[in-house]
Amino acid sequence: MKKIISLVMATVMLLTVMTTAISVSASETETTAVGDSGTVGTISWRLDSNGTLTLSGEGYMPEFSIGDAPWTGYDVRDSVKTAVIGAGIKSISAYAFYENENLKTVTFLANSKLEKISQYAFEYSGIESIVLPSSLKTIDSYAFYQTESLTSISSNASVTLDQYALSYCNNLTNVNMPNATFGTYTFGSSSNLQTLSAGTLKEYALYQISSLKTVNLTNAKSIGKYALYGCNNIKTISSNATTVGDRAFYNCYSLQTVNLPKATS
Prior knowledge:
This protein is an alpha/beta fold. It is 12% helix and 23% strand. It contains one helix and 19 strands. It has one helix at residues 2-34; strands at 37-40, 43-47, 52-57, 82-85, 91-92, 105-108, 116-117, 129-131, 138-139, 152-154, 160-161, 174-177, 181-182, 195-198, 214-216, 222-223, 236-238, 243-244, 257-259. The strands form five sheets. A five-stranded mixed beta sheet has the order 1-2-3-4-6, with no helix packed on it. It has a five-stranded parallel beta sheet with strand order 5-7-9-11-13, with no helix packed on it. The longest helix has 33 residues, at 2-34. The protein starts with a helix and ends in a 6-residue tail after the last strand.
């Protein structure tokens, strides 16, 4: 009888230990899979329960390949709804917010030192509008490629946008960047842009953006060749640009008034 009781007790104890081990293992797996904070290079990140991703630290963000940024992993990225970029961060690297489709808002803290937004940084993200810091110098090609929820972008920065930087942002209607330099085919061939405030336009910068109705080029230093080719809904162009390239306004069928008081060539 004693042997039977001992055997039963041993079996119960064994089952208890196994159950505890399984529970601990499951708990550990859940915690590590959802990870909510970490460090990449000199940048620290933290994702809270409300979906706010906070990036802090000093210097340039490490370069990423697709899916390498820890907050873009399959087990994390759907939880990211808001991103807060610390003042000391100088760059947003390639693919930093790739396919963060639930990311709607990006905020830059006061006195931001941000200098660069790299290629594909916000590709396929869900950003609806964004105000970029005045410290920004470069927005690389395809930086906001197919950010289809984006409706407006603004900044006072003297920033240069490379080719296709805002391409296939099909709901982008308002761009207010009066000191920016727009590169070749900044908006690609697909655009619903309505109003634009810009600085210098390089060649083909607004090529065949037929949806564009209002353009403010007061601060432009130059307007490149074919810069507004085929923008056939613009009625007035006024600019302090000193140089205007060949066929800059070609096929602007609705154009009625052109004011270029400082143009010398």
